[in-house]
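New to this. Please check this record:
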Amino acid sequence: MGRRAWSLGCLIVVLGFGCASGDPRRGARVFQERGCPYCHTIGQGPKAGPDLRGVGRRYDATMLELWLTDPEIVYRQTGRRPRNPGFPPMPRISLTEQEIRDLVAFLRRQ
């Protein structure tokens, strides 16, 4: 396992994620209720942020959990900012552990 993957995995363990599964139906509700569609679409092209179609194939559950927990950690670990020019970085959103697990389950199916 590479150093980056190991350090991200350790952070997830420290944060308490990785073991429990989420419910994609609840995740779809969280996606709507937390305002994700203001910046993101799923399969309709970008708005103010990236289109999330296929995000579950590009990133594993651990990375998605980290992204939803604290995007700045992902930006620092990967050494890059948002991929789409002109889009602001994703802010840190106050989500419960269950909301994060549910969102990850939802996004893994997109």
Residues 3-15 form the longest helix (13 residues). Confidence is low (pLDDT under 50) at residues 10-19. DSSP finds six helices and no strands in the chain.
